[in-house]
Amino acid sequence: MTTSTTPQATEPAPTPRNWFVRHKIMTALLALLIIVGIVQATGGEDTDGDQAPNTTSGAEQQQSGTETQSPREQLTAAITDALGEGNRDVPRVATVTYRNEHVAVEWAINDNITEGFIKTSARHDAFDILAAINETGLPVTQASLDGTFSMQDEYGNASESLVLSLVYPDRVLQRINYDNVGVTDTIHELATGLSFVHPAFQGE
């Protein structure tokens, strides 16, 4: 008697799954890290491009600042710097105007220990103002300088009064040697006949 055996079907061997399929969490983390790296690299390049190195020199920055100022502002800054601080309870530089190449300055003369030093200080002020005007390089056909000081009248009342009114045309301004401070000794005399010097400020 023969025994018949029914052949059993063999199951196919399982196909190994892809590593990325078997490690879904790790795959997601790797993808996230790659995306972040790309974004950072792209952002860094844009930032470097936007923030170009500042190679502007100090002189160029100062020139740029000067170019944005009006002529009157340039003159005011130059004159204020030249005169320095005042030592009386009045503004050192009262007014500065610039119209039709005509500069007009009103300033307060500083006090000093003697009348002689006060007069010398006033002469130095006038020279420094003219030198500052010249340094701006602005076209100037006339400079008018009005200096004030505290004066006492016959009744004993003190008030800020005009003691110097000096007018310099361009022919004088162009001839002054601003590198020679010795010009201060004759700065009042270089002014035109329209000028005024209070008796208390005449002489040396």
End-to-end separation: 156 Å
Question: Order of strands across the biggest sheet?
Answer: 1-2-3-4-5
Major sheet characteristics: 5 strands, mixed
Rg, Cα atoms, Å:
42 Å
Total beta strand runs:
5
| Helix content bin | 25-40%
The proportion of residues in beta strands is 15-25%
Order of helices and strands: HHHHEEHEEHE
Q: What's the shape?
A: elongated
Instruction: Tell me the number of helical segments per DSSP (H or I, 4 or more residues long).
Output: 6
Structural class, from secondary structure content? alpha+beta
Annotate the secondary structure layout.
Layout: H1 19-22, H2 24-50, H3 58-67, H4 71-83, E1 93-99, E2 102-108, H5 115-136, E3 142-152, E4 158-169, H6 170-173, E5 196-197
Parallel strand pairs: 2-3
Antiparallel strand pairs: 1-2, 3-4, 4-5
Helix pairs in contact: 4-5
Can you walk me through this structure?
Helix content is 39%, strand content 19%. It has 204 residues and is α+β, with helices and mostly antiparallel strands. The chain has a domain of 129 residues. It has a five-stranded mixed sheet with strand order 1-2-3-4-5. Helix 5 links the parallel strand 2 and strand 3. Helix 4 packs antiparallel against helix 5. The protein starts with 18 loop residues before the first helix and ends in a 7-residue tail after the last strand.
